[in-house]
Write the structure tokens for this entry.
Amino acid sequence: QTPNLQTPNLQAAVLQAGYRSGRLRVTEVIAAVYDRIEARGDDAVWISRFPRSQALARAAALDAQRDALFGPPPAPTAPMAPAGSTGSATGPDHDPDGLGGATPDLPALFGLPFAVKDNIDVAGLPTTAGCPGFAYEPTEDAPAVSALLAAGAICVGKTNLDQFATGLSGARSPYGTPVSPFDPTLIAGGSSSGSGVAVAVGLVTFAVGTDTAGSGRVPAALTNVVGLKPSRGLVSTRGLVPACRSLDCLSVFALSVPDARLALSVMNGYDAADPYSRRLPLMPPADDAPAPDAAPAASLFPPEQGASGNNDHPPRPPHGLRVGVARPEQLTFFGDRGARAVYDDGLRLIRGVGARTGEIDLGPFLAAGALLYGGPWLAERFASVGEFVTARPDEVHPVVRTVLEPGASITGVETFRGLTHLRALRRQADEIWRDIDVLVLPTVPTTYPVEAVQADPIGLNARLGRYTTFVNLLDLAAVAVPVGFADGLPHGLTLIAPAGRDEFLVDLAARLHARTGLPVGATGHALARSGPAGRPGTPAGFLDLAVVG
Amino acid sequence: QTPNLQTPNLQAAVLQAGYRSGRLRVTEVIAAVYDRIEARGDDAVWISRFPRSQALARAAALDAQRDALFGPPPAPTAPMAPAGSTGSATGPDHDPDGLGGATPDLPALFGLPFAVKDNIDVAGLPTTAGCPGFAYEPTEDAPAVSALLAAGAICVGKTNLDQFATGLSGARSPYGTPVSPFDPTLIAGGSSSGSGVAVAVGLVTFAVGTDTAGSGRVPAALTNVVGLKPSRGLVSTRGLVPACRSLDCLSVFALSVPDARLALSVMNGYDAADPYSRRLPLMPPADDAPAPDAAPAASLFPPEQGASGNNDHPPRPPHGLRVGVARPEQLTFFGDRGARAVYDDGLRLIRGVGARTGEIDLGPFLAAGALLYGGPWLAERFASVGEFVTARPDEVHPVVRTVLEPGASITGVETFRGLTHLRALRRQADEIWRDIDVLVLPTVPTTYPVEAVQADPIGLNARLGRYTTFVNLLDLAAVAVPVGFADGLPHGLTLIAPAGRDEFLVDLAARLHARTGLPVGATGHALARSGPAGRPGTPAGFLDLAVVG
């Protein structure tokens, strides 16, 4: 990897410590962000941006808000933390007033630059969904975006995507193909292609993506960042151009798990106007998972080998955690030996913290994934954008059109049969979930050159989604975490658990990420420590979480 | 009403007290049941029956089982309790050994005759689903039937139904139309037409029905019996010819709520092989309903008017219970003044026990109901039996064919849009459920002559389902309870609550039914007292329920 040593460190802990102390001004950060975006030229990351002047005006208002609370900053302001600095934000010099997490006055996302995938409404910029002919001018922010702005974050612009969020490569956009920060001949993943790269190369602290079949995780794996795909219904999908409306999730890309969690803590919330919004416990009590009448399942993990796995939820360390992994014959990397090596390294890291791994049958999961493009859910995609595709076929990306058009001829009978089939697969998966606390899989089996994807856009796309596509169909939550590099390319794991276990997953993912010792994204910076104890993955709740300097 | 004074009293408490004391033999009861069935001749109630000899052999085995436990019966055995007796089973003479509920040795349904709707598999009898050409010979009992038999109940036979359970009148069967026990020119309701009548006229203690759009409630209302439609997924639907597979429920008809509850306590249970089976709390804790982040809803019931409604679950009396009723302009009886009068009487009974009624907007409920035949769920019906309908149209009832055939041309796009529409309606209904504990509606607005239904089979069917069709779509449980008579015809109310509240509903329904003072079904018998304290609706759990003599 060749990290850019000029890359600013935009991790939330670093920025917020700087803002609070006055060493760093929001205007400085935003100016640096725009400088860097302009210096990169046409990198296919953005579809539209707010003008620099507008972002700077908002930054200046935030600086004034800060000064009203803490007084004028010390002069002269320090330069931004250079690359190669520790990235630690917990030294005493970062919190001179000693207020730490007890300062309630700066909003949670104060001064953090972010990007939004261009299938989500942000008032003031068009929503294109990756299709110029489809574009419209939203008059309101999506509720999730509105919450981020209200919490002090600064929206830089809208990022590129596979058209209509249909694809996992990033190579299905008329706005160009964002490429891997680690090898410009390779894809960066999709469909949230621009969101992943924007975070990885240090243009924003976090980016909002979407994830129906893996669009919030595949780009994370290929750009060495974190991809947090929350439970369905945890974040409102109002203001989103739907892919599969019953499955779509807003997701977060960030350099670290705590940063992704911070954004989710602001975005999440029940929305009575979104039919698919849900009230979910983020951290259900340990004893509610197995029903009282549940017959004992054959256990992969004999009790004598460790503590009672069912009770191992944060804040306790993952001692005795039961980790499901794929059987060897169901695990393929399509010949990518580097990917396999990093996968093995990742499992060693997990076992190193006292978790036990056991092989499970991935069959029901893979079968559920196959339904998304081989079953009736194509009709759900067609329900969203099919009228446009039918009316203006020439304005649709040819690959996307090829994928979407069969959705028109799926029958209601096939749809109900597919729903029942999925229900049966979910029943099988539920039995597996009685045996394990978390499922750990490669996020993607391998990656491909842009040219290869263009030559076989549908076949290679299916490969990319092998370990991601089933997640929303089976009502699961997932976090994609970087784990290591092989031959200069990043590889990661995804941690998966039933919906509602987001907090549990995030805690586990933070611990895993911290143990990798990896630099974050393509920035060259170390993972910032965060939380009162300087411990990554501090198990605070989403709602009371505080990132301190 | 003209009750048949020769009708045996088949209520479970009466039979079981007799069996235990030895005054009554199972063989006697079964012989009387077959005598009575034969005396009625062709009443269109049955599609098939087990031979008398086979039922008597099983009865004899049960009598022997009883004698092995309690010794030989006192000779001579007493005649069956004549009609006009109190029906009470709690006098000391009924429990001479004083064992009461502490006798674990007789199975829960020992010696109780029952019937099964003929779209549910019973090994040894064909399953016709009301269509001779469709009939097949099942090799296994449906799991629910199997459980009933294992608990000592005696299956008499299979009952008539609207073909493929598509209809609410009972007038869509090639096996004839069962008629009201109170007026032979009137329908008895459907689709579980034979099940309702078999219970009402005293041929069985209880009957298994099914309920997708109201088939387990409409016949109850028209025959003065109880119709218990449990939560979706509480009873396995394996061995059922599906109507709408995602919505179908097995249901129970009985003369009393405790008898219906007794049968359900045996039938219910998670079935891993049924994709739509669910693990459901029958009695969720009182404080789990409103989510912690729930915004306060505008309340129909100002707190100063009574106790905190949310905590009013059984076993406490329904003091302060919040009862939702329809707004006057949404309440129609299609001109049936008797039905309206009994409805008003029913609400007075409910208010008489300290419950508060408040008007709610029935709009989302009615809109959801309209989706069942006017939306994509017709495609789900077609997924079940469409191939047969297409292949052998002449063997399908013409009205049923007219209803089903449009299901073939519904698209997947329409289906997913319908699912989202339903989700939005459910969201609106959920808001209403934050305001009320139970919704009380007429079970049917009115009833019709068989001839009228034959003249307008689809229009009048829709009227019959006005207050029932939405229940499964919105994932609710319901109990239809007799409330009173007008002009010699029975009318009832249905109590409705969210899925999982079955026990709560059953308790409430038992109290309401007891307060009506009505004779049960068309038997002329009084409601049997049951439970250790002789109190109807004793709030024991399904699984530890014991009916004592």
